[in-house]
Amino acid sequence: MAQESVSGSCLCGEVQLRMRMPTLACVHCHCTMCQRNHGAAYVTWVAVARENLEITAGAGQLVTYRSSEHGTRSFCGRCGSSLLCDIALHPGQIDVAFACLHGPIDRAPQLHIYFDDRADWVAVGDDLPRLGGKTGLEPIEPT
Predict the structure, then answer these.
(1) d(Cα 121, Cα 143) in Å, to the nearest integer?
(2) Which of 20, 54, 140, 143 has the lowest CB atom count within 10 Å?
(3) How many domains are contained in the chain?
(4) pLDDT > 90 in the chain, percent
(5) pLDDT (tens digit, 9 = 90+) per residue, 88-122?
(6) Which residue range(s) make up the domain with 65?
């Protein structure tokens, strides 16, 4: 059961955060930027209202990279752990990498986005909705 908040950190522990519930969404993103940024087939993000996220230690180690014209990604400058994604299209929220959190949240992953960009070497075996297309959020037909 999720609590009112959950802590999180980068790999080395230099950057620490606290995220308060409720979350806004939890999604698996298969876009190629997430694949390259995390070195993984996809990344699970937890969206939270901006005011519900606090960097509690190591804010000076947090490095921001502009990954596109509408978004930035933040990572630990010491160990390189990717922690946050900030997308201008969603100004009131910020996305936190689920794997950096140290406990449960108030929801399970809800869907796959940018699914048509997925790595062809990974089989996804769940029944969650799969979205894709130009925006990454359009319904796609099952294959």
Answers:
(1) 15
(2) 143
(3) 1
(4) 87
(5) 988 999 999 999 999 999 999 999 999 999 999 99
(6) 5-118
